[in-house]
Design brief:
mainly alpha, 3-stranded antiparallel sheet, 20 helices, 7% strand, elongated
Length: 600
Amino acid sequence: MTRIVSFVVIVLLIAVGFAWLADRPGVLSLEWQGQLIQMSMMVAASMVAALIAAIMILWWMISTLWNSPHAARRYFRARKRDRGYQALSTGLIAAGAGNALLARKMTARTQGLLSADQEPLIHLLEAQADLIEGKYDAARRKFEAMANDPETRELGLRGLYIEARRQGAHEAALQYAEDAAKNAPYLPWAAQATLESKCRSGEWDDAIRLLDQQKAAHVIERGEAERLKAVLLTAKAEEKFEIDPKGARDDAKAALKLSKALVPAALVAAKSYLREDNLRKAAAILEPVWKAEPHPQIAELYVRARSGDTAIDRLKRAERLESLKPNNIESLFAVAQAALAAQDFDKARAKAQAAARIAPRESVFLLLADIEEAETGDQGRVRHWMAQALRAPRDPAWVADGIVSEKWHPVSPVSGRLDAFEWKAPFGQLEGPVEDVSVDSALASLPDVAQPEIRERIIEIPVPVKPEPVKTEPKPHVETKVEPKVETKTTVHPVVETPKPKVQSGEPTKVTPSAKAEEVVPFFGGAPDDPGVKKAEGAPLAEPAKPVTPVTQTPKAAAPKTTVIEKSGEAVPFFGGLPDDPGVKKPSAPADEKNRLNLF
């Protein structure tokens, strides 16, 4: 464009000059060697212009002939170079496509047309051809030669890094990446590999410094750089939390300034304040993060911030979180858990059902099952909610590269990627659960509370029958002998002798006089050692009159039995204690009835 404009300007100037001469006619006289030559100014100017043009044409022709050999050489050299670059381009495309035969053919043609010293890409084409053919050692030598050349150093280190990672030599790959990042921190692959290595080894300060270099070199965007730096500061704070809580708190607060919704940083800072028993500052750290991103770990730390709080106090703190973030599943779930601990079952059930309507998931239905277990104990209703939990989606957790963790980590254990863990439901690629869970349908199908069972059993209670008085002579202290398990001593007072009652079975019991008076123990169906049986105090002692001969008495008739039906919640008349009372001893087998003493 410049040449065209220059040509047009020159032509215009010449035209203007000739026009000026035409407007001013004159005669030019020239006397040379006795001859007088006269001509007009226009003819003279035309002759001068023609002479100049002839000289310029002549000079061009002479210079062209003089420079023709060099021009010819330059033409053929340029043509050869163009063919070499064409072959190099074709070879690189073939290597990228995996065509080893064409890549090797183009490599040979490129080497014949171009010099490796003039074009470093020839080494790259040779290395790629060797890689396709499986000649890894030859390819590594080519990359090493490129790494020694300052012009191709970064390209050679890149090739060596990729080959080292392919062969599993991670330490060698890291060394190549560090060498590249040292001289060229703007290389994304080198900086990323070095950063991941520093994170794996826990060198957080070096990682932060390298990240700052990448940010200054504009390798990564500002927002991403601030997020990664916040993650590194949080990891550094978690590592030194036990030995330096104050320093960990400073790093965590710096991380929160870079990323306001970073939950792990808020947890570290709040725990540091809680160690100093500073609840106000801990709450000031947790509440803004809760507003930005409600998280169950924040709710647990906030509710249980003080170990000495009662269940009612924790419920109030949970309600405070709900007021900060209403109509949120995490808020409702926290209140429901605190209400269950405080035995406020109505509130716990209402909040849990509201949380299930917002996002039905496993933990909510399990909480409803716990509420039923604590309040009603109805196993049918408990199993109903547990069945709903089996079909509900899983609860969110920290997930990175298919690994589910209950705790946040700064680096993925699989790929080593920084800030890989995310709070989401495991197996998030599924759009929903296997079976959709409807809270309304679950409530509609909830079974009623089971009524207590009324059990009936027949209990035979012996009813004591008072025998008619028997006339006998006054007897001194009579000692009665019973079975070895229970010994009972009684004092017999003088009675009137009457006809003996009819007995069913048994042998006569011998009664021998005793010189020592004992207390009278009333017995109604219970064992003598029953704590419910009290001994009679102040019983009169019979004074011995004169020795008498032993009297043989026949055992009394067995007392009739009464059948009573026991129902749950009804009182059962029983003398001596309930049937299941551990203080009541079971009567002996019928075979031992002959050795028992019937007191009535």
